[in-house]
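Below is a filled-in request sheet from our internal design queue. Each sheet records the structural input a requester submitted and the sequence that came back. We keep these sheets so that new team members can see what a complete request looks like end to end.

REQUESTER: design group, bay 2
PRIORITY: normal
MODE: inverse folding
CHAIN LENGTH: 112
BACKBONE (tokenized):
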């Protein structure tokens, strides 16, 4: 059974940074991708980034491009999302996913 656990969320001031981690277990596929989504209050879940497990291919939504960076230690099945230059609109619950499985999410709140 695939399990995904996010961590690293919290409260940060506008312009600040956070590092989110996603630890995966139970993945048996040799080739896979992990994505990051977020859901703000009252809004639909939004895909913001993904990367494949060789780290060669990544994608970012326009809303986070240039501010968020995804990386991973796939030998340890750990994915990291570095959030920089945070703005209030980044406030959301952030999830990692294999699209078949989802983590429980971690809250990011950007507020002064």
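RETURNED SEQUENCE:
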């Amino acid at each position: 059974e695939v399990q995904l656990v996010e961590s690293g969320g919290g409260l940060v001031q506008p312009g600040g940074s956070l590092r989110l981690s996603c630890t995966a277990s139970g993945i048996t596929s040799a080739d896979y991708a992990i994505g990051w989504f977020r859901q703000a209050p009252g809004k639909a879940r939004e895909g913001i980034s993904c990367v494949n497990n060789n780290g060669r291919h990544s994608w970012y939504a326009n809303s986070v491009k240039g501010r968020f960076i995804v990386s991973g230690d796939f030998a340890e099945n750990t994915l990291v999302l570095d959030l920089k230059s945070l703005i209030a609109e980044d406030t959301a619950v952030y999830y990692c996913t294999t699209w078949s499985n989802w983590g429980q999410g971690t809250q990011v709140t950007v507020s002064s």
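SHEET NOTES:
- The chain has a mean pLDDT of 93.
- The first strand starts at residue 3 and ends at 7.
FILED BY: M.R.
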